[in-house]
């Protein structure tokens, strides 16, 4: 008798949520595993170019210009000393053998509890076991923020629809030049701390609901305004 | 009733052991004490009597022996309490008050076989005692050169006078030390006022207590006693009157009963995978009905009727983990129990009662233990080993080589990061844990039973599924294939405590109980295999 695989650790303990087009970069999707205890495990999604274009990773670096996730000391039950990261704070830079560089982000705001240092020695974990041993980091959102942070992310169903929309779209456009993936992210501002004004703006967006989530992301990244429309369309699907 | 002849007086003086054996001197001292308003027991007290028997029934004999009028408070202070004991050895030592104690104990419905009593006295009693002592010293010289602490205390005298009488009323033996305590708190409204001169004399000592605004807290028995030692007689006399003033108010008394905690220990087995060990309540809402703690404690609480309780055990298992084998040692601390007299027989009946309430939790070796013994439980938590059996899955069938490899593992050192499932409330750390031994048995194609003997504190689930590679080495690494855990049982918690009890309630009972358990285990195993397919 063939036994099917029992529900995995992820199935049993976590809910899968997604952030698509992170930092407004098309296709750069991330997976966030959320536990009912508020622990968020930040991963890369299967649809991310690194995985779907079968890239080979040469280096994963947990620090960049003005930020370092390696310098994070966490003590006690209250995780004192942990870096407080905003949603778009970079977690690591992934360099691939084809020269492309991707920045993977935090996606939920909260305390940085740990980073997966195994990735430094075995970068291939990121593609081979993207939603388990290849996790990027563990974030603990505040007690008051957790639900809101999770709500802002896409559900599996919403994520599936985004992927469907994309594949339909590319079917229409398949004669045009495909959009480049792997923008050289290091040229973008990567401040972990969002200025006060922007936080207020975010709060406004929170009140207005999820539809604005994408707009907010786009606005913050300025240059990618043409994507706003695309994102809204996605949401209205 | 009448006065005794001098010869008789001299003879009866032998009954007492006073500071002076001179009848004449005793008469003078007694007359002086009567004049300031002292009660009969305080007469004996300041005369130096330290034989408890003198204070019981015949304490008023002192008047006859010393040729005084019985209860004649010469200077019209008849209605005022004694300036030495503030009435605690008068009104509060008479039968009317003792019957109030009985009433209180009955109202609180306590059960006990012996008792102790404690008294909290107004702080100013120490000042009044000092004042009388100085007064006597000045008047009678060398006789009162004895240290003040040679005088029997008001507390002692109350106990000598009333202890056995209360015992008779309660049908319980009076003991100096007993689990059941009757506390009498005496309050004298003028106490602070009478102490207030100390504040001016020792501003440093009493200022620390934020001075007068803290009222009651300014003067404690300890700091007043210390201040009195540091103050010589003449200074004391300057500050307050010797002898002390006649009390203008009466003491009030509050009676409270408490029983010292009783500890009930035992072992529990848990057969459910949907039962939390302690009540699972999040933000005031119950996440899961019932708990091991409640199933065990409810019948115990109904029996011992405590004011409060604390449940603790040697470690704990997750909601979805069963506790099998001999069970897990636990203790229930019963705070202020109202019923405590239970025989071994009673305890085994209580155990049966717990076991009849639920099939999910069964207890054994239920017994009353001492407070000292409870430390063993906590020690065992860190030092002991635990045995588990886990039903596991592997992405490929296990081979004979795999089984041999696992069986060969001895004292494997694990590096375990705090599991993700508890990381929100525990310190993030990497801890070293030992797996003493391992063995596996194939159940079906990809399922196998893993038996583990580990150091206490090892996270078994994480060792099997690796927790995203956060426990290393893990079973998957050892086998070179992905593994997961389906369910987990604790097979033994190696703590040799509490002592095992052989049920002695008759062969018949034992066999019926164990038969039930066996049937139940069968049912459980059937369910389990149903889960597997
Ligand atoms: Zn008295």
From TrEMBL, chain A:
One CC-aspect GO term: nucleus
Name the record gives this protein: Protein Abitram
Organism: Elysia crispata
SUPFAM superfamilies documented for this protein: Single hybrid motif (SSF51230)
InterPro entries: Abitram, GCV_H/Fam206, Single_hybrid_motif
MF-aspect GO terms: actin filament binding; actin monomer binding
Domain of life: Eukaryota
GO biological process per UniProt: dendrite morphogenesis; regulation of actin filament polymerization; regulation of filopodium assembly
Family per similarity comment: Belongs to the ABITRAM family.
UniProtKB/TrEMBL annotation, chain B:
UniProt domain Pus10-like C-terminal: residue ranges: 263-494
A Pfam family recorded for this sequence: Pus10_C
Gene3D superfamilies cross-referenced by the UniProt entry: 1.10.10.2050, 3.30.70.2510, 3.30.70.3190
E.C. code: 5.4.99.25
Keyword Protease: no
Molecular function per GO: RNA binding; tRNA pseudouridine(55) synthase activity
Keywords assigned: Isomerase, tRNA processing
Domain Pus10 N-terminal eukaryotes: 82-257
Superkingdom of origin: Eukaryota
GO biological process: tRNA pseudouridine synthesis
Homology family: Belongs to the pseudouridine synthase Pus10 family.
UniProt xrefs under NCBIfam families: pseudo_Pus10arc (TIGR01213)
The protein's name: tRNA pseudouridine(55) synthase
């Amino acid at each position: 008798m063939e036994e099917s695989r029992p529900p995995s650790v992820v199935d049993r303990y976590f809910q899968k949520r997604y952030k698509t087009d992170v930092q407004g970069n098309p296709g750069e999707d991330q997976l966030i595993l959320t536990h009912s205890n508020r622990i968020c495990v930040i991963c890369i999604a299967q649809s991310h170019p690194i995985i779907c274009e079968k890239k080979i990773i040469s280096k994963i670096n947990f620090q960049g210009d003005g930020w370092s996730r390696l310098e994070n000391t966490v003590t006690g039950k209250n995780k004192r000393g942990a870096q407080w990261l905003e949603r778009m704070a970079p977690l690591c830079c992934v360099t691939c053998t084809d020269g492309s560089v991707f920045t993977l982000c935090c996606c939920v705001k909260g305390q940085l509890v740990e980073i997966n240092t195994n990735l430094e020695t075995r970068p291939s974990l990121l593609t081979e076991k993207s939603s388990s041993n290849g996790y990027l980091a563990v974030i603990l959102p505040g007690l008051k923020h957790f639900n809101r942070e999770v709500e802002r992310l896409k559900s599996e169903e919403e994520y599936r629809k985004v992927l469907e929309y994309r594949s339909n779209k590319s079917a229409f456009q398949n004669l045009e030049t495909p959009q480049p993936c792997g923008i050289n992210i290091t040229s973008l501002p990567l401040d972990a701390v969002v200025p006060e004004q922007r936080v207020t703006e975010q709060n406004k967006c929170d009140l207005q609901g999820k539809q604005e989530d994408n707009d907010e992301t786009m606005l913050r990244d300025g240059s990618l305004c043409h994507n706003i429309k695309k994102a809204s369309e996605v949401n209205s699907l | 009733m009448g006065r005794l002849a001098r010869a008789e007086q001299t003879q009866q003086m032998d009954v007492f052991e006073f500071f002076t054996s001179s009848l004449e001197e005793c008469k003078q001292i007694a007359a002086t004490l009567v004049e300031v308003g002292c009660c009969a027991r305080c007469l004996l007290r300041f005369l130096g009597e330290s034989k408890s028997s003198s204070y019981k029934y015949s304490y008023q004999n002192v008047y006859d022996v010393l040729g005084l009028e019985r209860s004649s408070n010469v200077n019209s202070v008849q209605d005022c309490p004694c300036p030495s004991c503030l009435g605690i050895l008068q009104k509060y030592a008479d039968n009317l008050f003792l019957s109030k104690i009985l009433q209180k104990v009955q109202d609180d419905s306590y059960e006990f076989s012996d008792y102790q009593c404690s008294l909290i006295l107004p702080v100013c009693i120490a000042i009044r005692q000092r004042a009388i002592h100085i007064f006597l010293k000045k008047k009678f010289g060398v006789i009162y050169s004895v240290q003040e602490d040679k005088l029997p205390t008001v507390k002692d005298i109350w106990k000598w006078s009333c202890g056995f009488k209360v015992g008779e009323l309660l049908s319980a033996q009076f003991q100096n030390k007993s689990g059941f305590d009757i506390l009498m708190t005496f309050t004298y409204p003028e106490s602070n006022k009478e102490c207030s001169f100390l504040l001016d004399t020792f501003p440093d000592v009493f200022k620390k207590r934020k001075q007068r605004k803290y009222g009651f807290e300014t003067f404690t028995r300890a700091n007043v006693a210390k201040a009195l030692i540091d103050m010589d007689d003449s200074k004391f006399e300057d500050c307050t009157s010797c002898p002390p003033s006649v009390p203008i108010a009466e003491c009030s008394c509050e009676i409270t009963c408490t029983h010292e905690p009783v500890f009930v220990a035992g072992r529990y087995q848990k057969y459910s995978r949907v039962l939390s060990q302690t009540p699972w309540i999040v933000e005031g809402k119950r996440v899961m009905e019932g708990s091991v703690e409640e199933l065990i404690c409810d019948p115990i609480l109904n029996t011992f009727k405590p004011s409060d309780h604390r449940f603790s055990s040697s470690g704990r298992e997750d909601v979805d983990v069963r506790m099998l084998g001999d069970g897990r040692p636990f203790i229930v601390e019963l705070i202020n129990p109202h019923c405590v007299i239970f025989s071994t027989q009673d305890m085994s009946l209580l155990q049966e009662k717990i076991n009849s309430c639920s099939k999910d939790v069964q207890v054994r070796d239920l017994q009353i233990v001492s407070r000292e013994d409870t430390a063993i439980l906590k020690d065992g938590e860190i030092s002991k080993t635990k045995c588990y059996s886990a039903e596991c899955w592997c992405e490929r069938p296990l081979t004979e080589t795999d089984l041999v490899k696992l069986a060969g593992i001895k004292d494997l050192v694990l590096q375990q990061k705090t599991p993700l499932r508890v990381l929100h409330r525990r310190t993030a750390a990497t801890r070293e844990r030992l797996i003493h031994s391992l063995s596996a048995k194939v159940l079906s194609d990809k399922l196998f039973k893993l038996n583990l003997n580990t150091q206490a504190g090892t996270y078994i689930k994480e060792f099997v599924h690796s927790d995203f590679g956060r426990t290393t080495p893990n079973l998957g690494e050892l086998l070179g294939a992905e593994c997961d855990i389906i369910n987990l049982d604790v097979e033994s918690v190696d703590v040799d405590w509490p002592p095992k009890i052989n049920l002695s309630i008759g062969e018949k009972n034992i066999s019926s109980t164990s038969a039930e358990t066996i049937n139940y285990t069968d049912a459980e195993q059937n369910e389990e295999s149903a889960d597997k397919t």
